[in-house]
Fold this sequence. Notes:
Elements: H1 8-21, H2 33-39, H3 44-56, E1 60-63, E2 67-70, H4 75-96, H5 102-120, H6 124-139, H7 145-157, H8 167-185, H9 189-212
Helix pairs in contact: 1-3, 2-3, 4-7, 4-9, 5-6, 5-8, 8-9
Amino acid sequence: MPTAQPTKRDQIVDELRRMILTGALSRGEKLPQDELARQFNASITPVREAMRLLEAEGLLVAEPHRGVRVAGVDLDRVKGSYVVRRLTESYAMKRAVDRMAPRDIAAAEELIARMRDHAARGDSVSVRELNRQFHFSFYERCGLPALCDEIAGMWRSFPWDLMLSTDAWWDESQREHQAIVDAVRAGDGAKAAELTEAHIRNGYLAIADQIAGESTSDPFDLNVD
């Protein structure tokens, strides 16, 4: 059966979400519907429908008499997503290890190399997309498609646009990526899961510190609220 083509609404949803989570649209930026309709060569109806879907995801906010704007970031919501991501993604990684073929591992390493090249050019938008491809190259092989779908849903609303794009951060992130690949190649599911948890933790703390404007604690710790 042929794959259904995405509707205009779906295309607008995907592109607006990408623009928000890559920082192409700033937090708090207003989004006039008529301008978006012209930008996407669409009528107002699919634009309005796309905005409602993104509002339900928490990425947009509609205010009476003020229109629609890109939502700010709710730290409590990010905390919750982080905790669930850490639990589910480490589990998916552990399951994926025994299901990875040598060509899959080689493809993951190629993504690391491509991230390094784009980071050197300062192309943070491409790096974030390649980062997503890297992680899902494992999650998609966990043997539970519905679990992968749940993880993808959390990724779609996580504030990746707030991830600091410094050279030091990219270098450390790439070292963490390579360590994950090395554990997968060694067939060590427990180690791969542990490294994935640490990688998610470091990414969350970088974002949380930026949102809070100060150093934050890890809410995965049972003694932290």
